[in-house]
Specification:
There is one protein chain. The chain has 220 residues and is of the alpha+beta class. The protein contains four helices and seven strands; from the N terminus they run ββααβββαβαβ. It has helices spanning 66-77, 90-97, 143-156, 183-189, and strands at 30-40, 56-60, 103-109, 112-122, 126-134, 170-176, 193-203.
Length: 220
Amino acid sequence: MSNPLHPPGPPRPAAAASPSPAVPVSGVPTSEVTIWSLEQTSPADLRAAGGPPAGVRIVRSETPLPEFSRFLYTAVGGDVRWTDRLGLTYAQWQEILERPGGETWVAYENGTPAGFIELDSQEGGVVEIAYFGLIPAFRGRRIGGYLLSYGVARAWDLAERHPGRMPTERVWVHTCSEDGPHAMDNYLRRGFRLFDTRTEREPDVAHPGPWPGAHGEASY
């Protein structure tokens, strides 16, 4: 999964590793988190996964709907501390979903949402995988590799669906040590290459879950 604990950096961060100083948040325990940034620079870099598992299909969510997007966000990221969007207003969610060139593709298994991949079209033919992941009940069943492969292919042909957008020249993503244990391997298997590694101190917060207490912890 992609775990965007941090605001997106510039479209092409420096290639050298750049650990940041360990600055604790006053009064709040912190932990060291490693952030890895990966990229593809040609459609030929994509190593596609096999065909979809039985009963799985992927559909673009074309109607901007904050209620649905927030459900996906909390259901997928609730056990890996996705918290950066939890405080957004309805209008802010709507603004994100209506940004030019943004797309959300949802994997369904037998009619039930299983996960999603969100694409963010940036300047200069760059597309970021802003969010990617599966709801916990659907992990470990070959859905993630197929969803990532399909979503990256849609990042490469995104301009075909958005007249006036520059053709994609680069697809990038960042993941971190708070993410699932197979996240990095999934990106590498699909042909992504590591271009930046850094460490930061992050506040220790409860797993928010899709609702308070969903993962056996108090939430806020």
